């Protein structure tokens, strides 16, 4: 029984900041990466930022330089700090945990329920 609980979403003015947090509970093994995705109305879900168990990070170009992802793999937690928020950042943000093994090869994704981020102008 795996559950991802997100927090930190809400309403913020343009130029403001938010910190999203996600805590994964349950029997999750071999986590290879954790991250955040978002989906705006009428748009496809897209990557915001990810961080691998080795510490490598990946950011969407639209948030690079103003966002920071951090993790605590020992506690199965991941956070995303977003600064200089823009109205176009408005979306539902989803926490993602990727479970994978190289041998035997296996990959599975877990998703949170999503948290709304609304940036007003």
Structure description:
By secondary structure, this protein is mostly beta strands. The chain is built from no helices and eleven strands. The chain has strands at residues 3-7, 10-13, 18-25, 31-39, 46-52, 57-59, 67-72, 77-82, 91-102, 105-111, 115-120. Strands 2, 4, 5, 6, 9, 10 and 11 form a seven-stranded mixed β-sheet that branches. A hairpin with a 6-residue loop joins strand 4 (31-39) and strand 5.
Short description:
With about 120 residues, the chain is mainly β.
Q: Compute the average pLDDT.
A: 95
Number of strands: 11
Low-confidence stretches: none
N-to-C span = 40 Å
Structural class: mainly beta
Q: Describe the main β-sheet briefly.
A: 7 strands, mixed
- Based on Cα principal axes, name the global outline: elongated
**Helical run tally:** 0
Oligomeric composition of the shown chains:
single chain
Strand content: over 45%
Which H/E pattern describes the elements?
A: EEEEEEEEEEE
Give the helix proportion (percent range): under 10%
- Using only C-alpha atoms, the radius of gyration works out to 14 Å
Q: Layout of SSEs?
A:
Elements: E1 3-7, E2 10-13, E3 18-25, E4 31-39, E5 46-52, E6 57-59, E7 67-72, E8 77-82, E9 91-102, E10 105-111, E11 115-120
Parallel strand pairs: 2-11
Antiparallel strand pairs: 1-3, 3-8, 4-5, 4-9, 5-6, 7-8, 9-10, 9-11
